[in-house]
């Protein structure tokens, strides 16, 4: 949360200080610095701050209002709002944007899972999780506290891949209970050496949180090879 608040503050500063389209100077000329050096530095600052705003992923902004705020700051004109209120507005906007996206993704995921559960081999559980065993294993099933070594690929319902141990060329090895809830439940349905597809609704994945390229409210699909199960040591 502290990181999020810090990034919001930086974005607010960026929105107010990105160089506008005109040729106005942001300060007094410094003797000894060539015009070319100042110009290249100005462009570098604009590129850096512009990248910051882009990474915040606001969506469409009113560029006229953005440029007006920039000009007001550069010209020392009175701002419509304080920086504190600017941070508040941006935070509210980003939260609302995430909420809208989450609701849309939840609806799309619900529709997908309703259709998916009618397909051959799909097992739908009371939790909302769906799975399909693609290859049977040797009969050694993991418990939540056991460590599993897996190869996997994760995609969204539109087929977009967001993670893959195959791409990294390295298996993942963790205690099963360190994965998302959909994995914890689903991977106990396949045994060592087997392969399974997991269809995980958002509430068993990341819920209303955005995680990297995974938007809030997303239903996730994983294809997982369970390579090895290491049983947890029972403490006496």
H/I helix tally: 6
Strand content: 15-25%
Considering DSSP H and I runs of 4 or more, what fraction of the residues is helical?
Answer: 25-40%
Distance between the termini: 39 Å
Radius of gyration: 25 Å
What class would the helix/strand composition place it in?
alpha+beta
Average pLDDT works out at: 85
Stretches with pLDDT under 50, minimum 5 residues: 1-8, 17-23
Q: How many β strands by DSSP?
A: 7
Shape: elongated
**Largest beta-sheet characterization:** 7 strands, antiparallel
What's the order of the H and E elements? Answer: HHHHEEEEHEHEE
What does this protein structure show overall?
This protein is α+β, with helices and mostly antiparallel strands and 236 residues long. It is built from six helices and seven strands; from the N terminus they run ααααββββαβαββ. The chain has helices at 2-17, 35-56, 63-74, 83-116, 165-168, 181-186; strands spanning 123-124, 130-135, 147-156, 161-164, 172-175, 195-200, 220-230. Strands 1, 2, 3, 4, 5, 6 and 7 form a seven-stranded antiparallel beta sheet that branches. Strand 3 and strand 4 form a beta hairpin. The longest helix has 34 residues, at 83-116. The model is unreliable at 1-8 and 17-23 (pLDDT under 50).
Task: Write a compact overview of the structure shown.
With 236 residues, the protein is of the alpha+beta class. Helix content is 40%, strand content 18%. Strands 1, 2, 3, 4, 5, 6 and 7 form a 7-stranded antiparallel sheet that branches.
